Amino acid sequence: MIYCGIDWAERTHDVALVNDSGELLAKRHVTDDAAGYRLLLDLLIEYGDTEEKPIPVAIETSRGLLVAVLRTGKRKVFAINPMAAARYRDRHSVSRKKSDPGDALVLANILRTDMHAHRPLPDDSDLGRAIAVLARAQQDATWNRQQISNQLRSLLREYYPAALEAFAPWTNGLCRPEARELLKTAPTPTRAAKLSRTQIQAALKRSGRKRGIEAEADRFREIFRTGSAHHPLLVEEALGKQMLALLVQLEAACTAADDLAIAVEEAFPRHPDAEVLLSFPGLGIQLAARILAEIGDDHTRFADARGLKAYAGASPITRASGKKSSITRRWVKNDRLNHAGYFWAFASLRPSAGANAHYRRRRETGDWHAAAQRNLFNRQCHEVNAAATESRACLQWVVMTMKSGIPW
What we know:
Elements: E1 3-7, E2 12-18, E3 24-31, H1 34-46, E4 57-59, H2 65-70, E5 77-79, H3 82-92, H4 100-114, H5 126-159, H6 161-167, H7 177-185, H8 189-193, H9 197-206, H10 213-224, H11 233-267, H12 274-278, H13 285-295, H14 305-312, E6 317-321, E7 324-328, H15 335-347, H16 353-364, H17 369-389, H18 392-403
Parallel strand pairs: 1-4, 4-5
Antiparallel strand pairs: 1-2, 2-3, 6-7
Helix pairs in contact: 3-4, 5-11, 5-13, 6-10, 7-9, 9-10, 13-15, 14-17, 15-17, 16-17
């Protein structure tokens, strides 16, 4: 048996091959381009790599063209966490020396000694991986939009509180097109106070608003003309220019989030697992796509529900030593899946009587809201795993149990 370890870098990669006894058979330094990938594949073939029995590979990343090349065929690729690789390095040397060829050798030895303790990259379909790219990008765009919105809100509080008061009745008001158009029209409170009713109505129409324009224009005009403190004119104009610069970033983030959401809505329904995920109470297209992106469509990825719960960070972790024992939340987890799971648990409380009853029971036993939500997501992970591995009849029973008030 031959094992391969690759120390990944931005421009070049170090490769090491070892056999069952730990003997170093070969080491290479390959570039991160097509020629380097070809050299790597030729090296693997030279040492017995075949389509039926490929050489397993350990690498410290799960993304990139190199990983895509290695995943062709039946080859198992193991993405080793850099923290775990650093701990393995200490097993071979106490002097704390480090080199890229040495790291490649450590990765190869990880597979030689503990391959059973590490999970290979899941065998997801191309459509599943494409949905993962879109769902994660949409999630990143949503987080970026909220971050820029918070920066804009903080700036407006310094010199333009009337704008925040005007947009307060709207959910996520600064991200609304009406708010962005009004801020472009009047970037300072002095200019906002001079706006006529006609100008405000025109700005609302340019943003795409169709109803309630007259009433909103009157409300905005009254708020903008209310007396308030002002910075000196030059300082106020400078703050207005800073706000406009942030507004450009916010508009780009809003457009990116909306465009990626449309792309997810087009791609996700084509997946075979879409009907299954959307049948769960509380899951819409965007949230279901995020869960599919992190779990994948390889139904053999998790041996049981416990693995999925630990991966999602829904199950607690126990630390015991002698007479001391503590149970705490799990910090090492898939943050994206955990984030989506929190929203799923919250969204399922209204449409699912079973989920609501479980949440209420946890609150009555003394759990805080977040702990009860986490426990509910723990149960939902169990049902998702059952849906992925059991029959269609079992899935229907699971969904009916969640929708009813039957205790789980």
